[in-house]
Design brief:
Number of strands: 0
Shape: globular
Helix content: over 70%
Strand content: under 5%
Distance between the termini: 36 Å
Radius of gyration: 20 Å
Number of helices: 18
């Protein structure tokens, strides 16, 4: 009798990857709008930075909310709500002309990302995958976010060369709504009754909140958000202003990268490209090795890479090397962190439990983006904010070591 093995690639995984790809392509492009919007309205750098920071905070607040909505009302309804809110936020932002308007409207964009991003999609993918394939399925879905990052920033840069940033926002709004055509593929098991769901969710939340390991995972994810959001929002501008000139007869100029502005956009793309391989490799390792030790190693690697980069002269070569090195460690934490939550606390309420952990990630994102803009306006560079990122990365490497990785049910049985 031939044993039938569950397939890794499923319709749920394919659809989830495409939705995350579009959602993250748009999200990853916001750093490219930093200079055009600030220049048009003559705003301090901190104003639009605060808008992006609020977006990240709203994303974090919305993540457990959308996780709970998906578990109560169904995954597809949560995704529809997220996509429509995302589109409304982008359309309204295209008409905003004051810092306060942009900042408040980014709440909608942040909630939209929550409904179309990792929290909801990874929970669906995790439930649809077999035990054997779960780590790799989560890694593939996470890598799809990096694939969006590969072309999101360069696409925004290209569109800005032909049209206003307002029109680019409208195009992005149409793109996120178009992903709803994929929802028929997102077929999952029927949900439990409302009373059963509420009782069970309350029990698992109490158990998780009492578990020191859950607190450590929550704290450890903070630096991931700080580093990623700071780089996504500010690195294009950082490279534009701080990087040495590009040799007009060199390789970069030969492939069309003739300005530091273009290099800044390409750097985000390189980070995303390297992260596809890094995330898939992390998912592969997560099948065999301790997830907490892999996470500690990734945060240690990030800390070393960031410290070396800021200590060396900023040149086109160092920007490219940094982008590839940091990119290989970029979202490698996501399948490991989400997989660790699922392994310890179970799959049923993975969306809500991971969403709460992800809130810590977004608190870090808020601080990284906002502090980057504030310190730039105060000191004229990003050095101080960069070193904070190095410090919190080292903290996360340490804080994962005491996590008890065995399932909670086995510990409390």
């Amino acid at each position: 009798m031939t044993e039938t093995r569950a397939p890794l690639i499923t319709p749920v995984l394919v659809a989830g990857c495409l939705i995350i790809l579009v959602s993250f392509a748009i999200r990853a492009s916001f750093g490219v709008f930093q200079i055009p919007i600030a220049t048009e309205f003559n705003w301090p750098r901190a104003e639009f930075s605060l808008a992006i920071a609020i977006q990240n905070l709203a994303w974090g607040i919305g993540q457990p909310i959308f996780g709970a909505i998906a578990e109560k009302m169904g995954d597809r309804k949560a995704i529809i709500m997220g996509a429509l809110i995302y589109a409304v936020g982008l359309v309204a932002s295209s008409a905003a002309v004051t810092p306060a308007a942009h900042q408040m409207l980014e709440v909608l964009v942040g909630f939209g990302i929550a409904g179309t991003g990792f929290g909801v999609i990874l929970a669906v993918v995790g439930r649809a995958a077999s035990d054997e394939n779960r780590s790799m399925a989560l890694a593939i879905a996470t890598a799809a976010g990096s694939a969006g990052q590969v072309f999101g920033a360069p696409l925004a840069e290209f569109l800005l060369s032909m049209m206003s940033w307002q029109d680019v926002f409208l195009i992005f709004a149409a793109a996120i709504v178009a992903t709803l055509a994929l929802l028929p593929l997102m077929k999952t098991e029927s949900m439990a009754s409302k009373s059963e769901l509420e009782e069970s969710m309350g029990q698992i939340l109490i158990k998780a909140f009492k578990d020191p390991s859950y607190t450590l995972i929550f704290l450890g994810f903070f630096s991931c958000g700080y580093q990623l959001a700071f780089i996504t929002a500010h690195f294009p501008a950082f490279v534009t202003e701080m990087c040495g000139a590009i040799d007009p007869s060199g390789t970069l100029a030969a492939v069309g990268v003739s300005s530091t502005s273009a290099l800044g956009a390409i750097s985000i793309s390189l980070i995303g490209l390297a992260n596809i391989a890094g995330t898939l490799f992390a998912g592969y390792l997560g099948k065999t090795y301790s997830k907490k030790y892999l996470l500690a190693a990734i945060y240690t690697g990030r800390t070393i890479v960031a410290a070396l980069f800021i200590l060396m002269p900023i040149t086109p070569t160092s920007v490219i090397v940094f982008s590839i090195a940091m990119g290989s460690l970029w979202l490698a934490t996501v399948p490991l962190t989400s997989g660790l939550v699922a392994h310890i606390y179970g799959l049923r309420y993975m969306g809500t439990l991971y969403g709460i952990v992800f809130f810590s990630h977004q608190l870090g994102s808020f601080l990284g983006v906002w502090l980057g803009g504030r310190m730039y306006d105060a000191f004229g560079d990003y050095t101080f904010v960069w070193w904070i990122g190095v410090g919190v990365g080292a903290f996360s490497a340490i804080v994962h070591l005491p996590v008890k990785e065995q399932p909670l049910s086995a510990r409390t049985a």
